[in-house]
Write a structure and sequence with these properties.
14% of the residues lie in helices and 35% in strands. It is mainly beta. InterPro entries: NA-bd_OB-fold, RNA-binding_domain_S1_IF1, TIF_eIF-1A, TIF_eIF-1A_CS.
Length: 96
Amino acid sequence: MSENENGGRTDLRMPDDDEVFAVVTDMLGANRVQVRCADGQERTARIPGRMQKRIWIREDDVVLVEPWDWQDEKADISWRYEKSEADQLRREGHIE
């Protein structure tokens, strides 16, 4: 990861139309986590197979989730931010 000229700010992946920021609040096991979404909802989120072995998700991680169309209390995790990226999102006011 390289620091660039504008104060170490890196361009981060922002949510698409159907994604929201979320913070992992609890590990449920069986590739599921409890998340608190930026829209105020608590959801059960799935860790998809493509992320399971490559990306470790822990409590208090900032993630992007894609809520299910047919069941609003569930979602799929689509991205996990590194700690430095999450700090940058907080500084820029995207998440609390």
